[in-house]
Design brief:
Layout lengths: L9 E2 L9 H11 L8 E5 L7 E5 L4 E6 L12 H12 L8 E5 L9 E5 L16 H19 L17 H20 L3 H12 L8 E3 L8 E3 L6 E4 L6 E3 L1 H9 L17 H4 L4 H11 L8 H25 L7 H5 L2 H14 L6
Antiparallel strand pairs: 1-2, 2-3, 3-4, 4-6, 5-6, 7-10, 8-9
Pfam family, one: APH
Protein name: Phosphotransferase family protein
Keywords: Transferase
């Protein structure tokens, strides 16, 4: 999950993430078109799981994204997947940064990395779109919705991405994976009755529909760069969780903001949407349906509960790592303690859901 402050400015490179900038400069001279140093390196603030750097030269700026140094879990921090999906989507005109070069030689800076375009624009930390007047806020919300719908309509087979994930069974596999992780982490982080009930409910009410598209996996407003003055997305960031999966699961993760408070994933549940000029949840869902040529989304509430469950499991894992003393952030324990709140929100939503089988 991305941190709300991840691109909130840059600072000195953190000690654990330092590398030989001279070696990188030499590599870029050979592999990045029109590159000319000298090179200055800064690190974006916040908690990205893949360290991200701003590279500054006299005439140009770039972004470097790398695997963290050290021993990693198999398949984790796959920056090569991020580069692959962005390069493929760029061919369709989808708004992603240009990839300039990739390096699979860990000896250059200590881990694999890629260099991409630094897209300058406007980043919002909440879908309240602070700083935009009420008359135009809905345009920004609609643009976010339209861009996600556009992603889900991409023909992944024609782009050579059929092996980017597994077709079918996405929701059931995800439930099984995170339920198992929750059980494993419970030894350190404890269990929660609401979470246990949600897992059972999700398994008992699994929808029969099955659909596959490219999914982003963390499509939120703070992973978008908007034009400085227009309601137009210039770039979608953070493709680390992208795969082939259920587009409704992906969309409902984005729409989950309507059910969450502002201190959890920038939720907008407590805001007066009409006063802010923003669409309500039903209008937001209807917009997506029009863009993807659907009449409606059956079992929409099920997918919201599914995403709350997944996020709760992630928070539970953060709490477990904090208890074990190996969490990545000093704030990990505080973040992890939100697990109970999200699990209870998920169970409350499940109880209200018409998806529940009688």
């Amino acid at each position: 999950m991305s941190d709300a402050n991840k691109f909130g400015g840059t600072g000195p490179v953190r000690e654990a993430h330092k590398f030989d900038a001279t070696a990188l400069n030499r590599w870029m001279e050979q592999h990045v078109p029109e590159f000319a140093g000298p090179l200055k390196v800064e690190q974006f603030k916040g908690g990205q799981s893949n360290p991200t750097y701003r590279l500054i030269t006299p005439n140009h700026e770039y972004v470097l994204r790398r695997k963290p140094p050290g021993t990693l879990l198999k398949g984790a921090h796959a920056v090569e997947r991020e580069a692959r999906i962005m390069k493929a989507l760029r061919q369709t005109g989808f708004p992603v940064p240009t990839i300039y070069a990739e390096c699979d030689d860990a000896s250059v800076i200590g881990s694999e990395f890629f260099i991409m375009e630094l897209v300058k624009g406007r980043i919002f930390w909440s879908a309240t779109f602070e700083g935009v007047d009420n008359e135009h806020r809905h345009l920004y919300m609609e643009e976010m919705n339209t861009v996600l719908a556009r992603l889900h309509k991409v023909d992944f087979i024609s782009l050579g991405l059929r092996d980017y994930g597994r077709e079918g069974g996405f929701v059931s596999r995800t439930i099984a994976r995170w339920a198992a992780q929750y059980q494993k982490d419970s030894a350190d982080a404890g269990s929660e009755q609401a979470m246990d009930l949600v897992i059972l409910w999700l398994k008992e009410n699994l929808p029969e529909r099955d659909e596959t598209s490219i999914i982003h996996g963390d499509f939120r407003v703070d992973n978008l760069i908007f034009h400085p003055e227009e309601p137009r997305v210039l770039a979608v960031l953070d493709w680390e969780l992208s795969t082939l999966g259920d587009p409704i699961a992906d969309f409902s993760y984005n729409a989950m903001m309507y059910r969450l408070p502002s201190d959890i994933l920038g939720g907008i549940a407590e805001f007066d949407l009409k006063a802010l000029g923003l669409p309500n949840e039903n209008e937001y869902v209807a917009h997506y349906c029009i863009d993807t040529r659907r009449t409606d989304i059956p079992n929409f509430d099920y997918y919201v509960v599914f995403n709350m469950f997944k996020f709760a499991a992630i928070l539970h894992g953060v709490k477990a790592r904090a208890v074990r003393g190996n969490a990545a952030s000093a704030e990990a324990a505080t973040v992890g303690n939100r697990f109970v709140k999200v699990a209870q929100l998920a169970w409350a939503a499940a109880q209200r859901s018409p998806s529940t089988r009688k």
